[in-house]
């Protein structure tokens, strides 16, 4: 562990350097508070011994600057002083010092105070590590809360959160978007024929096929059951229709057997709706989603395994 010594008196500084080094610490030494502050900004130093009286920046000013919250870590500060009155000690502690050491210092006392500082620093590092683990777990939990575990895509909550976040700016910019509502054709019959385990496997394969057809910034969400919603930012109705036709083709080409279907393989139907660029209509994302759902109904009514546009 590194210890930063800030002491303007050369003889005192040399004594401190030798004593601290003999206790097993790596020593960095400077002759004023401003130089100490520059070292702290550029190095991951956690223990400081600072003299009260120094040129450019004294020990109290250094303590106050450390406690101002600029540094991304906790620094344990021992204030070195010849002042021994209660008022002086209180003033030093209120400035932000963690401990104090009187001149001339006692080596055993120096060792004890550095060990105290080391324990505090180690506890702070341990707490920081635990907080990072907790933050990572919270991020994972949040991701899980927005993800469908079977299809490995977003869930309905994730869709709503995405549209809430992205539809508002669309109202005031030139960036439109499109939605594709996807439904697996005759999926109830598929489950009845092949069983729910096969149905789950089919949904995973359908989801994977859809994702392979999309751009990295497109969104895929399980809306419920065998329904999927695809979000296409900056895509107009023609581009979205092309994507929807690619999805139908990709799923059909999986060749998943479905004897209850006229095509003999598993297929999907798609309904497409769009929020145009520069639109002056006060449409909500719920309106766009409803239009896509209506178009999907038209595709299914027209015979399935096809695309309908709102």
Task: Describe the structure concisely for a colleague.
With 310 residues, this protein is of the alpha/beta class.
Q: Tell me roughly what share of residues is in helical segments.
A: 40-55%
- The CATH superfamily of the largest domain bears the name Reverse transcriptase/Diguanylate cyclase domain
Q: Any idea what the radius of gyration is? A: 33 Å
Q: Residue ranges: pLDDT <50 for 5 or more in a row?
A: none
Strand order of the largest sheet: 2-1-3-4-5
Q: CATH topology of the largest domain, what is it called?
A: Alpha-Beta Plaits
Helix and strand content put the structural class at alpha/beta
Count of separate DSSP helical elements: 10
State the end-to-end CA separation: 67 Å
Give the SSE map.
Layout: E1 2-6, H1 10-22, E2 26-30, H2 33-42, E3 47-51, H3 59-66, E4 76-81, H4 86-94, E5 99-102, H5 107-145, E6 147-148, E7 153-154, H6 156-171, E8 177-184, H7 187-194, H8 196-212, E9 219-224, E10 227-233, H9 237-252, E11 268-275, H10 285-301, E12 307-309
Parallel strand pairs: 1-2, 1-3, 3-4, 4-5, 11-12
Antiparallel strand pairs: 6-7, 8-10, 8-11, 9-10
Helix pairs in contact: 2-3, 7-8
What this model shows, in words?
With 310 residues, this protein is α/β, with parallel strands linked by helices. It has 2 domains: 2-136, Rossmann fold, CATH 3.40.50; 148-309, 2-Layer Sandwich (Alpha-Beta Plaits), CATH 3.30.70.270. The protein has 10 helices and 12 strands. A 5-stranded parallel sheet has the order 2-1-3-4-5, with helices on both faces. Strands 9-10-8-11-12 form a 5-stranded mixed sheet, sandwiched between helices. Helix 2 (33-42) runs parallel beside helix 3 (59-66) and helix 7 packs across helix 8 (196-212). The protein is elongated and about 95 Å long.
